[in-house]
Specification:
Order of helices and strands: EEHEEHHEEEHEEHHE
Helix content: 25-40%
Oligomer: single chain
Distance between the termini: 7 Å
Shape: globular
Number of strands: 10
Structural class: alpha+beta
């Protein structure tokens, strides 16, 4: 089986069988190098057989910062990823590095499957995102239930927003808990970068519920980055 690219360049976030999610960030330097790196990834993967059925999908998004790439891959289990690293990853990365020298592989995190999610309208959506917003919330250790409580606090704040100041550009949000106990990742789909910027800039939004989110016990920092979907690969039939 060879790799097949999805026409909408986005993963099926709620596909069955996902037991592990890997998320990594590369820095490549310029928009031109971002485009070249995505094309090099496409060629390296489409020219080879799909490595293992334990890999369900591999998706890449381009940072609106003109520098970074986000990699989001779905696996049946963590061991399937470890097997891929041992047997298949180096040859692909070598080809990509030859095409785009100097890539900095910044970070890779392991996550459990989606812990909690929200979709506009409450059901699945066929709406295509213009931008993916990734929020990383870091905690000072795996305190019992603190990350889960933080996610619940976010949903409480979002529910209050929906009743008073809905975010018209938000499509979906998926919350993952890292397996090391230190991070929550929100992979959120929005209609456009502008819609997300306007939501952030709404000075009527910071309610008591959002203050509890931002000052939650154990929360030590957070980052927000925006990406444009560029490539999503899965095994062909």
């Amino acid at each position: 089986m060879n790799a097949v690219a999805r026409p909408d360049a986005r993963p099926d976030l709620h596909r069955p069988g996902v037991g592990a999610v890997l998320v990594s960030t590369w820095r490549v330097g310029t928009p031109e190098r971002q485009r070249a790196a995505v094309e090099a990834i496409r060629k390296a993967w489409e020219s080879r057989a799909w490595p293992d059925l334990g890999l369900l999908s591999y998706s890449v998004a381009v940072g609106t910062d003109g520098d970074t790439l986000l990699h989001y891959s779905q696996w049946t289990e963590q061991q399937a990823y470890d097997d891929f690293v041992r047997t298949h990853r180096d040859e692909r990365n070598a080809e990509i590095d030859a095409a785009v020298p100097g890539i900095e592989r910044v970070e890779l995190r392991r996550y459990a499957p989606i812990h909690r999610s929200a979709v506009r309208g409450g059901t699945g959506t066929g709406e295509l995102p213009g931008v993916v917003v990734v929020v990383e919330a870091d905690f000072d250790g795996p305190g019992a239930g603190r990350r889960e409580d933080w996610v619940d606090a976010v949903f409480t704040a979002l529910d209050e927003d929906a009743a008073t100041r809905p975010a018209p550009g938000g499509i979906s949000a998926q919350f993952h808990l890292s397996t090391d106990g230190g991070r929550v990742l929100n992979y959120a789909e929005w209609e456009s970068e502008r819609a997300h910027e306007e939501w952030l800039a709404d000075d009527t939004r910071p309610s008591e519920a959002w203050k509890r989110v931002h000052h939650h016990p154990g929360l030590v920092g957070s980052r927000v980055r925006r990406y444009t979907p560029a490539l999503s690969l899965s095994a062909g039939v």
